Amino acid sequence: MSKYSPTLEWEPAMKLTVFGATGGVGREVVRQALDAGHEVTAVVRDPARLGVPAHGRLHVAVVRDLTDEEALVPVLTGRTAVISALGAASNKQARLAPVTGPSVRAIVSAMDRAGVRRLAAVSAAPVGPDVETDGVIARKVFLPVLRWALRDLYADLEVMEAAIRASGTQWTVVRPPRLLDKPRTGNYRRVIGANVPDARTISRADVADALLASLTDPATAGHAVGVAA
Q: Rounded to two decimals, what is the model's pTM?
């Protein structure tokens, strides 16, 4: 494991569909993808919440029900790759109306119909296995309490990950710890196939960076990737 410093200057430009585009990570994905020269279709329920200035390579698609596969196929057709930044805002929301798992299940099915193979999705570090080198307090106290307090949110993400693994996509799942509203550094720790040791936080902007970078990194295909500052 080492500090990871990806570059977003890719050629050729990609055509991306971004789900969860009005959230903290999704909005950063849209901004960074546009800055890198990509064409972006941002899938939203409410365009007013996107918060990204109009751009010649930005298309906004309103889809009210992300479990409606028929509505998803048109926003995926002709795209290079898909990024899901979907996630419940709270444990209560995930308990009352889980969205991430059911939505991603419909998304991967619609991707198959549209002929789109590459997918990157954000999950969460507690969904992955413990890091044995982390302290006893972290593994035996902090993480069990966190997993219990946010059990419905993580259960929703587990459904999402299971749907992705069962799909025919070339997938990458990015698992960050606690998210912060800080600028992108492009300099963070990354572990393919495991969580980052002693992980505490990472900025939403760096998670967006990791999602975008994974799309052109064959080493991440078919793996969960831990990221942390």
A: 0.92
Q: pLDDT-derived band of residue 139, with 50, 70 and 90 as boundaries?
A: confident
CA 152 to chain centre: 18
Sequence spans of domains, the chain:
2-228
pLDDT at 7 over 90: no
| Helices and strands, number each (H, E), in the chain | 8, 11
Interatomic CA distance for residues 90 and 79, integer angstroms: 31
Contact 76, 17 (CB under 8 A): yes
pLDDT tens track for 56-102: 999 999 999 999 999 999 999 999 999 999 999 898 988 998 999 99
Beta strands in the chain (DSSP E): 2-4, 15-19, 39-44, 58-62, 81-84, 118-122, 170-175, 178-180, 188-192, 201-203, 223-228
Q: Return the CATH number of 2-228, one of 3.40.50.720, 1.10.10.10, 2.60.40.420, 3.60.20.10.
A: 3.40.50.720
Helix 69-76 with 100-114: angle, nearest 10 deg: 50
CA 218, distance to chain mean position in Å, is: 17
Question: What is the rounded CA–CA span in Å between residue 109 and residue 89?
Answer: 24
Tell me which residue has tokens 């799309």: 215
